[in-house]
Design brief:
This protein is an alpha+beta fold. It has 4 domains: 114 residues, Helix Hairpins, CATH 1.10.287.110; 84 residues, HSP40/DNAj peptide-binding domain, CATH 2.60.260; 76 residues, HSP40/DNAj peptide-binding domain (Sandwich), CATH 2.60.260.20; 30 residues, no CATH class. It contains 9 helices and 17 strands. α2 packs antiparallel against α3. About 10% of the residues have low confidence.
């Protein structure tokens, strides 16, 4: 499951900008790396909280996130580039904006850089499914072009038979920390190691197929499980199916945006299925027995005499499964069959006479059509 940004900050989805700001300040002070030296879990959580605030503090990004989740704000990077870096930036800038350019904790600080192989990019694709597949769920194949692990070097980036060496400059940490004295006291800064580019390792003999990157770009396919009740515009997240990271870095996520085809007979209104049942004037007047073809099979529909235009017949539990946020179904909507009375536009002479006598028997006034009058005028001259 994707991490919920509101839960990370400890606020409700209806929280205003000031509430979000206060919540971020509190969480950032608790989790900042300078307050938790050597605690990798706290550092990782600090980055997540900062990314959450970066999105929720921006009205446009927040609106996209509320509608599409992380996919709506680009996940953790630019999904269009399978070789792009995987970490989100700007965390230090956000923190600096709150606390005046320095860490509120003793010992300096500022932004810490991620060490080791970076996570791969998230990838976004569109999956087209039929109306029935969206209602009942299905498995579908999605095709995309993405970065995958190089089999030649098993993702290490080193030539077969060789291995990477620990960077002597940073000792494998991927970053170099420097301490300097200032008017404000001792300041500690950290920056990516220039020798190993923050990887923590040096490759003397790179793998030829991937040129030392540990991954190559290929066309790939993934099977995605589409839950029953999905609708156009909703997005599925498949963890770890995005582009792999450089030199053994973890894979990003795959975001599948669903597009549902229209149906010839049914239309969807939230979780209800709606269809038009077309009957004649005679059937509406005298009543009829019809067989209604539903997505679950045939159903008998008894239309009583005197039914009116627009009347709905409800078939409970024959609609679309309710899809909750956890991806599970809880019951189904209904099927609504709406009566449409078809008025004939052309009548034979026999049909016209029958309807005329019917109207006269009921004391109803009817006006003859222009074509009937022309017919009578024509016959008078024969």
């Amino acid at each position: 499951m994707s991490t919920d940004f509101y839960e990370l900050l400890g606020v409700s989805r209806g929280a205003d900008a000031d509430e979000i700001k206060r919540a971020y300040r509190k969480r950032a002070r608790e989790l900042h790396p300078d307050a938790n030296p050597g605690n990798a879990e706290a550092e990782s959580k600090f980055k997540e909280v900062s990314h959450a605030y970066e999105v929720l503090s921006d009205a446009e990004k927040r609106a996209r996130y509320d509608q599409f989740g992380e996919a709506g704000v680009g996940g953790r990077g630019n999904a269009g580039d399978p070789f792009g870096g995987g970490s989100a930036g700007g965390f230090g800038d956000i923190f600096e904006a709150f606390f005046g350019g320095g860490s509120p904790f003793g010992g300096g600080g500022g932004q810490r850089q991620q060490s080791g192989p970076p996570r791969g990019q998230d990838v976004e694709v569109v999956a087209d499914v039929s109306f029935e597949e969206a209602v009942f769920g299905c498995s579908t194949e999605v095709k995309m072009r993405s970065a995958i692990r190089c089999d030649e070097c098993a993702g290490s980036g080193a030539k077969k038979g060789t291995s990477a060496k620990t960077c002597a400059e940073c000792g494998g940490a991927g970053q170099v920390r420097r301490v300097r004295q200032s008017m404000l006291g001792q300041m500690v800064t950290a920056a990516p190691c220039g020798r190993c580019s923050g990887m923590g390792q040096i490759i003397d003999a790179p793998c030829s197929p991937c040129r030392g990157d540990g991954r190559i770009v290929k066309d790939v396919e993934h099977t995605v499980e589409v839950p029953a009740g999905i609708n156009t515009g909703q997005t599925l997240r498949v963890s770890g199916r995005g582009a792999v990271g450089v030199r053994g870095g973890g894979a990003g996520d795959l975001y599948v945006h669903v597009r549902v085809a229209e149906h010839d007979t049914y239309r969807r209104e939230e979780d209800d299925l709606v269809t038009d049942v077309v009957i004649s004037i005679a059937q509406a007047t005298l009543g009829t027995h019809l067989v209604l073809s539903t997505l679950d099979g045939d159903e008998d529909l008894i239309v009583p005499p005197g039914v009116q235009q627009g009347r709905e017949f409800l078939l409970k539990g024959r609609g679309v499964p309710h899809l909750n946020q956890g991806g599970r179904n809880r019951g189904r909507g209904n099927l609504r069959a709406q009566i449409v009375i078809a008025v004939p536009t052309k009548l034979s002479d026999a049909e016209r006479d029958l309807l005329t006598r019917f109207a006269e028997a009921r004391g109803e006034h009817v006006t003859q059509t222009e074509s009937k009058l022309k017919s009578k005028i024509k016959s008078a001259f024969l």
